[in-house]
């Protein structure tokens, strides 16, 4: 809905933008890095972004994994469940601000092991009801969580993780980047990623990561 300060031209310009769909797991630091990049892309390219949840816990639930990684995934249900419950009960518009509030604490804030308190604080910051925290350990909305996850992963296949980005008929995993580029550099990376990913026979480009996420 437009505000009193928006003109008809402003609204028309917003609705005419190309739309990118972004699937994320809030616990993943690499998805966080990519989300910061795409936020920069919005400043320099005429796109808008729709935010969706996916889940590394769902993606890996039937796989034989290292016990330490399995423990991490078990703990990762809570954040994505809370975001999904907030979406179900309060609308799509709460997904991005709640992700920002959680992710800022988890990733640059270094509080990934303090998940319950982070969720409580994030709900308060966004102005959502505190009792949404009850969904941290509840499977009440897991059906829609799995549906959102399946929608994103169906575009790129089971051999990838989070994030997934879809844009004008092109979908891809990643990019995995650090630090997140800013300004026109972010726009140039976007142009390049969309170009290579749009080629029907393009599947993978990769090199060994030599550093972890740089939160700046």
Question: Would you give an account of this structure?
Answer:
The protein is of the alpha+beta class. Helices cover 47% and strands 10% of the residues. The chain has a 4-stranded mixed beta sheet. Helix 2 packs across helix 9, helix 5 runs antiparallel to helix 6 and helix 6 packs across helix 7. Pfam families: Rv2466c-like. It comes from Occultella gossypii.
Summarize the structure.
The protein is α+β, with helices and mostly antiparallel strands. The protein is built from nine helices and four strands; from the N terminus they run H-E-H-E-H-H-H-H-H-H-E-E-H.
Query: Stretches where pLDDT falls below 50 for ≥5 residues?
Result: 1-14
Arithmetic mean pLDDT: 91
Radius of gyration: 17 Å
How do the strands line up in the largest sheet? 2-1-3-4
Gross morphology is: globular
SSE sequence, one letter per element: HEHEHHHHHHEEH
Q: How many strand segments?
A: 4
The level of helicity is 40-55%
């Amino acid at each position: 809905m437009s505000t009193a300060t928006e003109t008809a031209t402003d609204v028309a310009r917003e609705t005419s933008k190309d739309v990118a769909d972004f699937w994320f797991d809030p616990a993943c630091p690499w998805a966080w890095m990519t989300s910061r990049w795409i936020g920069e892309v919005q400043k320099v390219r005429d796109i808008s972004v729709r935010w969706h949840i996916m889940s590394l816990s769902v993606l890996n639930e039937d796989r034989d994994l290292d016990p330490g990684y399995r423990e991490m995934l078990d703990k990762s249900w809570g954040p994505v469940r809370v975001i999904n419950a907030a979406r179900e009960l309060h609308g799509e518009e709460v997904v991005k601000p709640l992700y920002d509030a959680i992710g800022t604490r988890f990733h640059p804030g270094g509080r990934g092991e303090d998940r319950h308190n982070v969720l409580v604080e994030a709900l308060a910051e966004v102005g959502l009801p505190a009792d949404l925290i009850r969904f941290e350990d509840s499977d009440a909305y897991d059906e829609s969580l799995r549906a959102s996850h399946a929608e994103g992963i169906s575009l790129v296949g089971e051999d990838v993780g989070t994030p997934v980005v879809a844009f004008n008929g092109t979908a891809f995993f990643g990019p995995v980047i650090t630090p997140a580029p800013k300004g026109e550099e972010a726009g140039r990376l976007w142009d390049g990623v969309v170009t290579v990913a749009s080629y029907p026979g393009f599947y993978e480009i990769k090199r060994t990561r030599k550093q972890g996420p740089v939160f700046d």
